[in-house]
Design brief:
Structural class: mainly alpha
Number of strands: 0
CATH topology of the largest domain: Leucine-rich Repeat Variant
Order of helices and strands: HHHHHHHHHHHHH
CATH architecture of the largest domain: Alpha Horseshoe
CATH superfamily of the largest domain: Leucine-rich Repeat Variant
Distance between the termini: 47 Å
CATH class of the largest domain: Mainly Alpha
Shape: globular
Number of helices: 13
Strand content: under 5%
Number of domains: 2
Largest sheet: none
Helix content: 55-70%
Radius of gyration: 18 Å
Length: 237
């Protein structure tokens, strides 16, 4: 069993700006794996750092830990307009990942945030929390992946129907994400090609496409015939 002193040593590495970023990331993911209040406290201290990338990952890890004791710091980060949009939006996603309905009203409030990344992520988080309330006892994530996803995969398994939902801009973002994760779980060439179309669509470089957006990319990379679709994607502005 890891002692509090050992957690402290790892935490000091995480918050030390003199340490290489990759070393600090290793400390972060070690703390995530250890869990508990002391790990959460050290991760929370990292939000004072100047690296937006590191702070984004801090929020991500707190969400993946699914510990309600992380809610206060994540709420502070979401509400802090001095934090970078990518950090605030990840805090919103993390609050949804934790799954505690006490933040539902706050997430609804920020679903109309002027920063599109924040607003769309909070919309997804609201959708996830409401889904959990409507489906008590059901597992929100299923399939071969261990991550806590922003939306549960759709029950539909027909690739054609999932593709239609994914590409339909009239559909709620939450339902499109459910289709995306279902396609990820189905796997195979046809699913990967459908995801490639989604990647090339209007939401490819907008809104919430970071950790969630990585899933289609991983599928595409594992599907040799689909790689050209990924290589041809335009770079973000």
């Amino acid at each position: 069993m890891v002692t509090e002193q050992e957690v402290e040593a790892i935490g000091k590495t995480l918050v030390d700006p003199k340490e290489p970023l990759q070393t600090r990331f290793r400390a972060l993911f070690t703390l995530r794996g250890l869990g508990g209040p002391h790990a959460i406290a050290w991760i929370s201290r990292g939000f004072e750092d100047s690296s937006a990338l590191l702070k984004h990952e801090l929020a991500y890890c707190l969400g993946q830990m699914q510990d309600s004791r992380a809610i206060p710091v994540l709420v502070d980060v979401l509400c802090d307009t001095n934090q970078e949009p990518m950090v605030r939006h990840e805090a919103g996603e993390a609050l949804g990942a934790i799954g505690n309905p006490e933040v539902l009203d706050l997430l609804k409030q920020y679903s109309t945030d002027p920063v599109v990344e924040v607003a769309e992520t909070c919309q997804l988080a609201v959708g996830r929390l409401e889904w959990l309330q409507q489906h008590p006892g059901e597992v929100a994530s299923s399939g071969p992946y261990l991550s806590v996803d922003p939306a549960p995969p759709a029950a539909e398994r027909d690739v054609g129907r999932l593709r239609e939902t994914l590409l339909d801009e009239a559909q709620p973002l939450f339902e499109r994400y459910r289709a995306m994760f279902a396609l990820r779980n189905v796997g195979g060439k046809e699913a990967a090609l459908a995801l490639a179309e989604g990647e090339a669509g209007t939401w490819g470089w907008e809104g919430v496409g970071d950790h969630a957006g990585c899933y289609p990319t991983v599928v595409l990379l594992s599907c040799a015939p689909c790689r050209p679709a990924l290589w041809q994607r335009p770079l973000p502005p």
